[in-house]
Design goal:
Structural class: mainly alpha
Number of strands: 0
Helix content: over 70%
CATH architecture: Up-down Bundle
Number of domains: 1
CATH class: Mainly Alpha
Number of helices: 5
Strand content: under 5%
Largest sheet: none
Order of helices and strands: HHHHH
Shape: elongated
CATH superfamily: Ferritin, core subunit, four-helix bundle
CATH topology: Ferritin
């Protein structure tokens, strides 16, 4: 049971890091403010590093990585492009990314509750991902 929950939690975190990097990549070239752009670049790097750590753990557990749900990814792309076509401001980007962070944090807490038998390492990496998401959300508030 522990191994199953561990792998399932790691897979959800892996999917989350991929969703986050794709969302950041989607808006990065539309940002005007250089400080905001740097903030998102650094956050993407944190997500990518954590994603690499997750891949190593999944391999260690004999499992494969997990891609984001295609429906969720498609809905995110649609929302981003619709909002950006109406208002191409940095405030719109901040709103989109902040909303994504909130959804990610909520999902990660749900997965931690769902996979309670997961080992300490996978719970710790999930908490690290939550912290990255919460920090990005908080840092973006000044751009809203």
């Amino acid at each position: 049971m522990e191994k199953d929950d561990t792998v399932l939690l790691l897979k959800e975190c892996d999917s989350g890091t991929k969703m986050a990097t794709a969302s950041i990549d989607e808006v990065l070239d539309r940002i005007q403010d250089s400080n905001m752009k740097q903030l998102l670049i650094e956050s993407r790097e944190h997500h990518e590093k954590l994603g690499n750590d997750l891949h190593s753990l999944l391999i260690k557990h004999g499992s494969e990585e997990k891609d984001p749900n295609p429906m969720a990814k498609g809905m995110s792309w649609l929302k981003t492009n619709m909002k950006m076509n109406m208002d191409q401001s940095d405030a719109t980007v901040a709103e989109l990314i902040t909303d994504g962070c909130d959804m990610g944090v909520k999902s990660l807490y749900r997965y931690m509750n769902q996979y309670q038998a997961a080992d300490g390492t996978s719970k710790d990496i999930c908490k690290r991902l939550i912290n990255i998401e919460e920090k990005l959300r908080d840092d973006l508030r000044k751009y809203l």
